[in-house]
């Protein structure tokens, strides 16, 4: 067995680098499931009293009716919060956030954005994020924190009144919650499209390499 | 401006019917959790049909019970709901129920008596005049509906905890259970700690006037630390009890604690 392993190592001159460690992959996919549950059940709740002049089509909402949507939302929130908190702690403690997401400079972002829009952005080394990726990934973490804080404000506006005052008042926290959802949906569209354009990045998020 | 018919001044009839219908269960639903066709994607992700199965429904009920416990744990009996100046009052204050305003109970205030039952020393019924003589306070607080919308109103009445003391209620009991005159028999349990919250009020007046029919004449229980559907209107009786007797909305799947 050892000879086979040695031969393998020999063939691929350098052992393939782990791009996404196991904890990132695990939390990424748990988060993906939690997000889909939260967004589709959230649409159900939105439809009970729309903030704007539109409703989400019934077929893309979760829960069947308001009570069902609420049950899903307040169940999936635990998955989202526990997983999200573990992700933040691990990301900060291991230095991954600092290493992968910083620095973000305006010149770097504008340079890489231009390159991306003209399809000239290189993806040779998936272990290094370009400036646009850094900005989007760091940004979506901030949005993730905001959507949880505004959600907690809507859920417990009396017990967590100090959190509500961070947003102004209850109705404002509702709007913040909605716009964070919209930002996450916009991110999802770009994120999934780009992952499909660079399939190696999707593979890395599944098997690590 | 389009011509609109008003049942109560300033409240659009069509809008309030629309609002009411949204909160009602879909008559065609067989289970309240079954979602739409798009949830096939979720089935693929999880490898099992979680959305349609009764085990999912059971899981969600268990999580909802867990959420009851979490909410009871973080409930601070001293935390007051924010109060507002009169200028912040929402006008018109929306009518909201699972029926049209036409169908709202018409209670005869002269014949009405509040029935007091269960773990109390004094079980006699109270006339409206007797209740009106109790010391009253006014609060301007935000009513938050389970649907998400909110409105600020001014409510005047007697703190429920003062009344419970007066009738010698067992304050260690778990619930105060309210039965109301709404069609189809609305009822709702209120946990004792919330019942004893300083802002929980037996409400007899709205915006400086006698509580109108639209908002629950002759008596509503105003609970600013709970979602709107746990603020009983047209109250007929209250029972101090250790038994969980369920409630109109609670039994249909709405979270029972539903605290703010």
State the fourth-level CATH superfamily of chain A: Transmembrane di-heme cytochromes, Chain C
| Computed Rg of chain A | 20 Å
Cα-to-Cα separation, first versus last residue of chain B: 38 Å
Main sheet properties of chain A: none
Helicity level of chain A: over 70%
Explain what this protein looks like in three dimensions:
The complex is a heterodimer of chains A (209) and B (260). Helices cover 73% and strands 0% of the residues of chain A. Chain A has 209 residues and is an all-alpha fold. Chain A has one domain (2-207): Up-down Bundle (Fumarate Reductase Cytochrome B subunit). In chain A, helix 6 (131-155) runs antiparallel to helix 8. The longest helix of chain A is centred in the middle third of the chain and has 28 residues, at 66-93. Chain A is globular and about 50 Å long. The two termini of chain A are 23 Å apart. In chain A, 27% of the residues are buried. The model of chain A is unreliable at 1-12 (pLDDT under 50). With 260 residues, chain B is an alpha+beta fold. Chain B has six helices and twelve strands. A five-stranded mixed sheet of chain B has the order 4-3-12-7-8. In chain B, strands 5, 6, 9, 10 and 11 form a five-stranded antiparallel sheet that branches. In chain B, strands 1-2 form a two-stranded antiparallel sheet. Chain B is globular and about 50 Å long. Chain A binds chain B through residues 32-33, 36-37, 40, 45-49, 51, 58-68, 70-72, 74-75, 78, 154, 156-159, 161, 170-171, 174, and chain B through 19, 22-23, 25-26, 29, 31-39, 41-42, 45-46, 51, 59-61, 63-64, 67, 71, 74-76, 79-82, 142, 144-150, 224-225, 249, 252-255, 259-260.
